């Protein structure tokens, strides 16, 4: 089968986006891994599959797969690219779009400047929601990784994140700690690992070692997780500019029972076709 796709990115976190509204398309794990191979396929961090909704109150459903073939609950940069994709392809003319994902329903708002504002839903700090294995609720948790003690805030923003506050960011740190925490036994479904350097109460630098991918140039859910963890710990204000290697995101959270609001860019790179 000849598969038509669009290559997109959100701050360098790159996607292959497929229209499964106009024509039904299904992928198995081996196909996703092959398409995601940067040498032998197209290459992407995540595959986004746009489908009709199962709920008539929703506009679309979209599925998200990491390049290792695993299906995931949520993707912040992907949500913004999804919104640009359905508008560009005229699958909708709405600029406020309601979407079903594996984590539930999300709302997207395409702004006049082309940026997309996403209501990412409420975070949860309950260990069971990641899941994260803990004896009792704490503010900060410690785990052993590579013979050293790592202090982290576990947070679910629909998908699981471990946020580690650091004094300085380096390749050595991300590559030494990232894979070990991602695959740590305390996280039975594995975890996305964020390394956050607090610059001021309204500004952080962040690098994310993503579950099922490795370090990406940006992670939208990672930015949300880092900011809400920082607010919970008393390190950050309610609106924060997050500097990621691929660019900046604005994240706002008013506190418990409020949704996280993420605002940022989405870009189309090219269209193509490939035999599946
Ligand atoms: N890059 C994404 C997150 C994608 C999913 C993640 N790797 C996971 O396994 O949960 C984002 O922008 O949020």
Task: Explain the overall architecture.
This protein is α+β, with helices and mostly antiparallel strands. The chain folds into two domains: 2-121 and 265-275, Roll (Diaminopimelate Epimerase, Chain A, domain 1); 127-258, Diaminopimelate Epimerase, Chain A, domain 1 (Roll). Helix content is 17%, strand content 42%. It contains four helices and 18 strands. It has helices at residues 29-36, 76-88, 171-182, 220-232; strands spanning 2-10, 13-19, 46-51, 60-66, 71-72, 96-101, 104-110, 116-119, 141-145, 148-156, 160-165, 192-200, 203-210, 214-216, 239-244, 247-253, 260-264, 267-275. It has an 18-stranded mixed β-sheet that branches. A hairpin with a 5-residue loop joins β7 and β8 (116-119). The longest helix is centred in the N-terminal third of the chain and has 13 residues, at 76-88. It is globular. The model has no long low-confidence stretch (mean pLDDT 97). The site of ligand LBFN2T5F has 19 residues, from α2 and α4. This is Diaminopimelate epimerase. Pathway: Amino-acid biosynthesis; L-lysine biosynthesis via DAP pathway; DL-2,6-diaminopimelate from LL-2,6-diaminopimelate: step 1/1. One of its GO terms (molecular function) is diaminopimelate epimerase activity.
Bound compounds, please? ligand LBFN2T5F
Structural class of the secondary structure composition?
A: alpha+beta
The assigned CATH architecture of the largest domain is: Roll
What is the radius of gyration computed over CA atoms, rounded to a whole number of angstroms? Answer: 18 Å
- Count of runs of 4 or more consecutive helical residues: 4
**In CATH, what is the homologous superfamily of the largest domain?**
Diaminopimelate Epimerase, Chain A, domain 1
Number of domains: 2
Query: Could you describe the largest sheet, including whether it forms a barrel?
Result: 18 strands, mixed
Helix percentage range = 10-25%
Q: Terminal Cα separation, in Å?
A: 6 Å
Number of strands: 18
Q: Kindly report the CATH topology of the largest domain.
A: Diaminopimelate Epimerase, Chain A, domain 1
Which overall shape is indicated by the principal axes computed on the Cα atoms?
globular
CATH class of the largest domain: Alpha Beta
Which whole number gives the mean pLDDT? 97
Query: What ranges have pLDDT less than 50 throughout 5 or more consecutive residues?
Result: none
Strand content: 35-45%
Order of helices and strands: EEHEEEHEEEEEEHEEEHEEEE
């Amino acid at each position: 089968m000849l598969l038509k796709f669009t290559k997109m990115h959100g701050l360098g976190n790159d996607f292959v986006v497929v229209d499964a509204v106009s024509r039904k398309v299904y992928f198995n794990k081996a196909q996703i891994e092959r398409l995601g191979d940067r040498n032998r396929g197209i290459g992407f961090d995540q595959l986004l599959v746009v489908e009709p909704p199962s709920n008539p109150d929703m506009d679309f459903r979209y599925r998200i797969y990491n390049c290792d073939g695993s299906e995931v609950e949520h993707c912040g940069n992907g949500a913004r690219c999804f919104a640009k994709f359905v508008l560009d392809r005229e699958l909708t003319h709405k600029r406020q779009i309601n979407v079903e994902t594996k984590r539930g329903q999300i709302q997207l708002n395409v702004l006049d400047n082309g940026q997309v504002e996403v209501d990412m839903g409420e975070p949860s700090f309950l260990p069971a929601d990641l899941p994260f294995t803990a004896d009792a609720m704490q503010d900060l948790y410690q785990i052993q990784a590579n013979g050293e003690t790592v202090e982290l805030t576990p947070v679910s923003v629909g998908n699981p994140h471990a946020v580690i506050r650091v004094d300085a960011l380096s390749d050595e740190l991300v590559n030494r700690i990232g894979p070990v925490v991602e695959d740590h036994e305390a996280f039975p479904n594995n975890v996305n690992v964020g390394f956050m350097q607090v610059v001021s109460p309204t500004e952080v630098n962040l690098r994310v070692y993503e579950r099922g991918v490795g370090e990406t140039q940006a992670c939208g859910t990672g930015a949300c997780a880092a900011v809400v963890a920082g607010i919970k710990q008393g390190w950050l204000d309610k609106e924060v500019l997050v500097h990621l290697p691929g660019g900046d995101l604005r994240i706002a959270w008013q506190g418990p029972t409020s949704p996280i609001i993420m605002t940022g860019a989405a870009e189309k790179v090219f269209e193509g076709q490939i035999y599946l």
